[in-house]
Design a protein that fits this description.
Helix content: 40-55%
Low-confidence stretches: 3-22, 359-363, 371-402
Radius of gyration: 34 Å
Structural class: alpha+beta
CATH class of one domain: Mainly Alpha
Strand order of the largest sheet: 2-1-3-7-6-5-4
Largest sheet: 7 strands, mixed
Shape: rod-shaped
Oligomer: single chain
Number of helices: 10
Distance between the termini: 25 Å
CATH topology of one domain: Methane Monooxygenase Hydroxylase, Chain G, domain 1
Mean pLDDT: 78
Number of strands: 7
Order of helices and strands: EEHEHEEHEEHHHHHHH
Strand content: 5-15%
């Protein structure tokens, strides 16, 4: 994002290629702080609503061409050139501060319910970028594809405004609140999956978990980047005085910044949990190798004296008195058997045969884990499936203010 000529200039930003949308989708709603009312309007009524001094507006545009946003800003005589590189992979807020507006990028999960639905498998979190432009009497959002957070704010903004909305920043508050809410829930779902992985490691079935661990690790990294970007935006909104954020709104944003810090701590804790799972897998592999080495050591200890005896009597010397004994062959075989049994009993007394029994005993069947490519299998209460159901059922809508 770049300021057209006199602001700061940053490199372009683009996410992974998004599907093309239908022709431009326009949503407009104006709020009257005195009457505590709201009314929706279409593109043709935009100029009339933006000229009304008694209201402030929220305009949301979904389109492929970011030039639509630049044309829209001309209604407020704002020359804010937004670079047409909207899909680069880096996650950065790209904040632009001007005397007539503040603009930044906000990152939202495309459809959080996909990752909380027990009928689906664990999948990599997919997110999209939204441009948010905040002015004294307007707020504009632009995105290229349908996003669940935006649909949620469209549905609940009128009720939230009647409760506590005063300025356009209350719409920003709704967006930030819902984003942090989704980040926290997705992080919890990821933790629940790691709990199931832990159970599989305990039961000795860690070989098939590589794909799930890779997805869980990428999800943790994604949530960390999304939360960090939201923290940077909230630090600006909560601490820096500007004409677009009222003093009471800054207080609400400061509280939300604390929530963002808590979500970031939870994500870091999930990363520690992932490291713990990986350490357990490595420890299980090391124990397995140790058991194999113990078995080989026991076999070597038993065979070594037997090989020594057979090697001695395998020498081709003429003067070996034992070769003339009638029962010498059977006597040596019996001695070898006694030595072997004695060594096995000795090793058992020392506890060295535990590795043999663990290798020969079949592993316990663990609870089924959600498959990576296939339907979600049954899981026990308290693991991924049960926790997902609780998370999905506990979602509730709360008013926000700004």
């Amino acid at each position: 994002m770049a300021d057209g000529g006199k602001g700061c200039q940053n490199p372009p930003v683009v996410l992974s290629q998004a599907p093309h949308t239908d022709p431009d989708q326009f949503f407009g709603i104006s709020f009257d702080p005195q009457e505590r009312t709201a009314r929706r309007f279409d593109r043709e009524a935009l100029r009339r609503e933006s000229a009304d001094p008694s209201v402030f507006c929220w305009i949301d545009v979904q389109a492929d061409d970011i030039g639509v946003l630049n044309d829209l800003l001309k209604n407020w005589n704002i020359d804010l050139a937004l670079i047409n590189h909207f899909e680069e992979p880096e996650v950065l807020p790209r904040i632009v501060e001007r005397n007539d507006c503040v603009a930044f990028y906000l990152y939202q999960v495309i459809d959080p319910e996909e990752h909380l639905d027990t009928a689906r498998t664990i999948e990599e979190i997919e997110f999209a970028r939204t441009v948010m432009v905040l002015g004294a009497d307007f707020i504009i959002t632009f995105h290229r594809r349908s996003i669940a957070v935006i649909d949620y704010v469209k549905t609940h903004c009128e009720d939230a405004f009647r409760l506590a909305g005063q300025t356009p920043s209350f719409v920003t508050f709704l967006f930030m609140e819902r984003c942090l809410y989704d980040y926290a829930h997705l992080n919890l779902a990821n933790d629940n999956f790691l709990d199931v992985i832990q159970e599989h490691v305990f039961y000795g079935h860690q070989e098939e978990l590589a794909a799930g661990l890779a997805i869980a690790g990428r999800n943790i990294l994604t949530l960390k980047k999304l939360t960090s970007s939201a923290q940077i935006v909230l630090m600006l909104l909560a601490t820096k005085e500007n004409p677009f954020i009222s003093a009471p709104a800054r207080g609400f944003f400061r509280e939300m910044l604390q929530n963002a810090n808590a979500v970031r701590d939870a994500v870091d804790s999930s990363r520690d949990l992932l490291h713990s799972v990986l350490a357990n897998i490595q420890a299980a592999a090391a124990n397995r190798t140790s058991d194999v080495a113990r078995v080989l050591t026991v076999l070597s200890g038993v065979l070594l004296p037997l090989t020594l005896v057979t090697g001695i009597y395998g020498m081709n010397f003429e003067n070996m008195p034992e070769l003339g004994y009638r029962f010498g062959y059977f006597g040596v075989l019996g001695a070898l058997g006694v030595v072997a049994c004695g060594l096995l009993l000795l090793f058992r007394h020392f506890g060295w045969l535990r590795g043999v029994s663990s290798l020969s005993r079949p592993a316990k069947a663990p609870p089924k884990v959600p498959e990576i490519n296939g339907e979600l299998r049954s899981v026990p209460t308290g693991s991924l499936g049960g926790s997902r159901r609780v998370v999905a059922s506990e979602r509730r809508d709360e008013p926000a203010s700004g």
